[in-house]
Amino acid sequence: MPFKRFIEIGRVALINYGKEHGRLVVIVDVIDQNRALVDAPDMVRSQVNFKRLSLTDLKVDIKRVPKKKELIKAMEDADVKNKWEKSSWGRKLIVRKTRANLNDFDRFKLMLVKIKKAAVVRQELAKLKKTSA
Amino acid sequence: MAPKQRTARKVSRNPELIRGIGKYSRSKMYHKRGLWAIKAKNGGVLPRHDPKPKPQAPSQKPPKFYPADDVKKPLVNKHKPKPTKLRASITPGTVLILLAGRFKGKRVVFLKQLPSGLLLVTGPFKINGVPLRRVNQSYVIGTSTKVDVSGVNVDKFDDKYFAKEAEKKKKKEEGEFFESEKEEKKVLPQEKKDDQKTVDSALLKSIESVLDLKAYIGARFSLKQGMKPHELVF
User: Which single residue of A28, B86, B92, B191 could bond A39 by disulfide (Cβ 3.0 to 4.6 Å)?
Assistant: First the structure.
């Protein structure tokens, strides 16, 4: 039951509320009991309440409040982007985003593919049922 | 130098320093406008044109009847209505979803906007049974799917093409109410059927070139479980 993900300098977090919803950021300093100073390569360094952050497993090796260039280099060394996109959490977010941006035509094509897949699965199931019966 | 090259001068020669105050004084402006030259050409005075003879208006007889109270005349309105502004998402070739009427839910190809503001639309008829038809922009969802309509000529279609034929007034007699049935069925003139075919043949080629597009246009749109219209991207 112990905590595994801590608020620490270098912790990668996801902003889960507000204007920056969905952004991956790095905690760069702790301001006080409730707030952290947070930074990302394409964002102005700003403060964020802990309640708006969801901590991830990823960590970056930085000193307290690094310069932007150092932050970018450290993020590339830790390979944050690829690790995030490969993680199951990151993949789920990507899937959710693509589903939300589907065109009406895309949804139709998806439906056709789903029907095909279900037909194949059902065929195999019928075969298995036959052999086991 | 024979033709006088004069650009239509609309801007004043007196630049504005602040609203109401020009840069040059009256005397300077007199010189700038060249009124001295005009006067010199005309012998010291500004040229005077005699008024053109006005055509004599036909003499009207005094009216027979004056209303007891003063009748107010309505203000003159020279407003000419423009066709409705077309949404930016609707361009020729866009697939539209019809929301009301006989063909509700059908996906349909947009051809052009008619001068009345209504949208000219076709199924194509072979694919989903929607003929060349007019549709109001408000009852339509514009999707982001586009079909190539460069091979289609829609110049001949306008609002008059779709006007209802004026029915001849028939005198009904009591006896005929119960005896005669309406024998005349409205048959589509062959010309309109041919128009449909020519428009559709060009469209069908471009539709069949895209995978699944024909099945897409043949299917009706409906909201399924979990679909939230305000979150859907069309």
Answer: A28
Q: Of the candidates B200, B190, B192, B108, which has an alpha carbon nearest to the alpha carbon of residue B152?
A: B200
Measured between beta carbons, the chain A residues lying within 8 angstroms of B215 are 108, 112
**What predicted TM-score, i.e. pTM, was given to this entire model?**
0.72
Q: Which of B212, B231, B234 has its CB closest to that of A104?
A: B234
Rounded to the nearest angstrom, the minimum Cα separation between B204 and chain A is 17
Cβ(B94)–Cβ(B143) below 8 Å: yes
Segment A17-63, tens digit of pLDDT:
999 999 999 999 999 999 999 999 999 999 999 999 999 999 999 99
DSSP assignment of chain A equals ----S---TTEEEEE-SSTTTT-EEEEEEE-SSSEEEEE-TTS--EEEEGGGEEEEEEE----SS--HHHHHHHHHHHTHHHHHHHSHHHHHHHHHHHHHT--HHHHHHHHHHHHHHHHHHHHHHHHHHHHH-
Q: Burial code of B85-117, b = ≥16 C-beta within 10 A, e = fewer? A: eeeeebebbbbbbbbeeebeebbbbbbbbbeeb
User: What is the token pair recorded at B96?
Assistant: 């539209």
Say yes or no for a CB contact (<8 Å) between B215 and A102. no
Structure tokens that stand for A128 in this block: 């298995």
Q: What is the pLDDT of residues B186-216, one digit of tens each?
A: 788 888 899 999 999 989 999 999 999 999 9
Q: Is the dihedral of CA B201, B202, B207, B209 positive or negative?
A: positive
Burial A44-78 (b: 16+ CB within 10 A, else e): eeeebeeebbebbebbbebeeebeeeebeebbeeb
ipTM over 0.90: no
The CA-to-CA distance between both ends of chain A, in Å, stands at 47
